[in-house]
Amino acid sequence: MYRTITIACAATLLSACGSETSGEFTTADGETGEYSIDNSTGETTATIETADGTATLRSGADVPVDLPDGFSLYPGASVVTNTVVNQGEGTRVVLLSFESNDSPEDIADYYKDQAEAAGIAIEVDATINGGRMLAGKAQDGSVFAVNATAEDGKTSGQLTTGLGDLGE
Questions:
Q1: Cα-Cα-Cα-Cα dihedral of 16, 43, 112, 73, to 10°?
Q2: Reduced to 3 states, what is the DSSP secondary structure of residue 12?
Q3: Which pLDDT score, from 0 to 100, does residue 43 have?
Q4: Could you tell me the domains of the chain?
Q5: CB atoms within 10 A of CB 93
Q6: Residues 7/9/12/18 CA torsion (nearest 10 deg)
Q7: Where does the source fall among the domains of life (predicted)?
Q8: φ, ψ (nearest 5 deg) of residue 102
Q9: Which of 96, 99, 11 is nearest to 56 (CA)?
Q10: What is 88-116 written as a DSSP string?
Q11: Does 22 have pLDDT greater than 50?
Q12: pLDDT of amino acid 11
């Protein structure tokens, strides 16, 4: 199922790069989908039919932030883009990009506290070129990752959460 979500995201984002504002696509596995792009907001929506059911994607700066229980947007941060992928039966992935004036360390610590409180075991905690990256997994298969990097006085953050049967 994780493979299917990845395919849906890739196909939709590639389609969004062209000049078309809507269309259909077929993956290498023969799964079919359709997408549309709202020219006024830049929001992209897509659906893809798979053997596991219908997956939906919604992506854009104005897509409402709806993170799993226990997680929230970093205080004072501004959303750059929010992507939500749903594939029935509680399987959901959120990819949230944001900016903040705070340090990568402060952002990573904030999300580390939230992840641990949600029962996620931190498996990766790395400082790379002044940025910080965390990743982990819960007993129920839920996943979490955050990456925060600073440049020109701003910190860019990417938070990924995944709930449900994400597969291998």
A1: 160
A2: helix
A3: 87
A4: 1-54 (no CATH), 61-168 (3.30.160)
A5: 23
A6: -100
A7: Bacteria
A8: -85, 170
A9: 11
A10: STT-EEEEEEEEESS-HHHHHHHHHHHHH
A11: yes
A12: 44
168: confidence class by pLDDT, cuts 50, 70, 90: very low
Run of H or E residues at 152? none
Q: State the sign of the Cα–Cα–Cα–Cα dihedral 114, 135, 150, 61.
A: negative
Residues 99 and 81 sit within 8 Å (Cβ to Cβ): no
Distance CA 102, CA 58 (A): 28
Pick the closest to residue 43 from 7, 74, 6, 79 (CA basis).
79
Q: Is the full-model pTM beyond 0.85? A: no
Tens of pLDDT, residues 58-95: 999 999 998 988 899 999 999 999 999 888 677 889 99
Q: Which strands form 143-151's sheet, in the order they lie side by side?
A: 22-26, 32-37, 44-50, 53-60, 78-86, 92-100, 154-163, 143-151, 131-138, 120-128
Helix (H, G, I), strand (E, B) or coil at 43: coil
Question: HSE (CB half, 13 Å, CA atoms) of 49?
Answer: 7
Phi/psi at 5 (5° precision): -65, -45
